[in-house]
Amino acid sequence: MIEINPSRFKTRPFDHQLEGIKRLIAQPGFALFDEMGSGKSYQVVTAAGLLHEAGELDCVLVIPPASCKSVWLNEEYGEIKKHSWVPSIVAEYHRTSYVRWADDAPAAATLPWIVTNYEYLRSLNGLDHRRTGLEAVLKQYRKVWMVLDESSSIKSASSEQFKAVKELRQLCSRCTLLNGTPVPNNPLDLWAQITVMDPQVLGRHYKNFYHFRYTHCNFGGWRNKQIIGWRDLEKVQDYIAPYCLRRLKRDCLDLPDKIGGIESSTPLLREVKLTEATWRRYKRLRTEAILSLPDTPDHLETNGAVRLLRLAQLTSGHISKQPIIEPPDDQVELFVEPEVEWTSDEKLRSTVEYLKEWSTQEATVVWCRFRPERERLVKLLRNEGINTYEVYGGQKRDEREEAKRAFNPLSRGQGRRVLVAQPHAGGKGLDFSSSTEVLYQSSDWSLEWRLQSEDRSHRSGTVANVAYYEVLATGPDGQKTIDHTILNGLRKKQDLAAWTCAAWRKALQDEENADVF
Fold first, then answer.
1. Which is nearest to 498 in space by CA: 309, 210, 227, 311?
2. Is the pTM of this model over 0.90?
3. Intra-chain end-to-end CA distance of the chain, in Å
4. How many CB atoms lie within 10 A of CB 4?
5. Whole-angstrom Cα distance, residue 199 to residue 194?
6. Nearest-angstrom CA–CA distance, 417 and 386
7. Going from the N-terminus, what domains does the chain have, and what CATH number goes with each?
8. How does residue 390 score in pLDDT terms, banded at 50, 70 and 90?
9. DSSP letter at 508?
10. Which of 30-39, 119-128, 434-443, 476-485 has the lowest mean pLDDT?
């Protein structure tokens, strides 16, 4: 029995964290599904220290998305450095393992942490020397704890990431899932995650993934292949309940309020009128999109998806001259548009004016869906003399670390500053809790990324109310645009990436009919 004495901890836990630490120690296969910002990584670091002192742990393998590695690795503000009282040696594995930092202590008393990332593991199956290299490192230890941060990154049982993680799991005696949004799209997302954690949890009830799917899915639509509903999901909840914890921030933390956001009954809107010329072009593209979308329950094909994407681009000030393919959920690097046409700057100018003339907050985060939009907004802000940072895919490490330092809790009092970030690069795992104002310059279709990005600013460490503003384009007379459609879908907790052709067609037709009346 491991004694848990919080007075010895480097950071004193909240009551809900103490419960989580006890469960992590007691259960080798466990899922910590607490809401974003409630301190999941702290619970892991503290439990690891207790297990290591008791001789139950030789090494911790942490696998986060690439954009979240510094949450664990950083020597200045990383979770291990902040919370572990046990001497640690922290190494990053990327082709080879190298030490990022280490405490000065005898080797026998030191707990090794190895941090890699899902995107790197995705290529392990095709490169044997990479796989065998990481396996050789893990085989040096007898008791390895695998920690899967943002575990929905392996939600697809057919993905290379899932296959690589599942193979490494065989070398680990413990496995923990960390995720604030464990079911980002539908209940099927649980299968792969729980199977890696402990294959017997669901494996004793289902033969395989297909058995799981056909047990709980109602099919219909074209050729009876579309999922149109669910059944007996309470059984799944009963099966996994003994192996997971799910707590909401409002139930366990005394945090300041969120003002606005997609869960608010009164979102904060900053509506910006498009020019007559931009509006005429928008209506033409919308009509073309309606005509191209069949009234069927099929999922969007490339042609329809590109037309919808261009509508969203147009309200953000540009249009791609070539078809765009958005990245899959498990890919951080955003597709770089080969060439864009600048169409307008109404929303961008409005945001710059607001941040320069009206905003009174010290630190503001602006989320941009599109790379050209982000680049253009950053240029405009810097031209106005506003201290501006960025987080985006493919960014240099030093530049990204500087942005993180400027918006973590320790940065309060450092003067007016703005962070412009893309959700797929900065929307998970990072701590921007020094910011008390958040603007969504444009919104991603994914409900998961929206929920995750909102909680970068509202989490343990937040000391003031956080206001969330939606920057939405309208017609010259206040007509609604696709910006409103996306926001309404997200507020209904719908993942727009899963919308059918018929759903999108109806939404655009409703928008068009509202213009007339």
1. 227
2. no
3. 70
4. 15
5. 7
6. 7
7. 6-201+238-252 (3.40.50.10810), 258-516 (3.40.50.300)
8. very high
9. H
10. 119-128
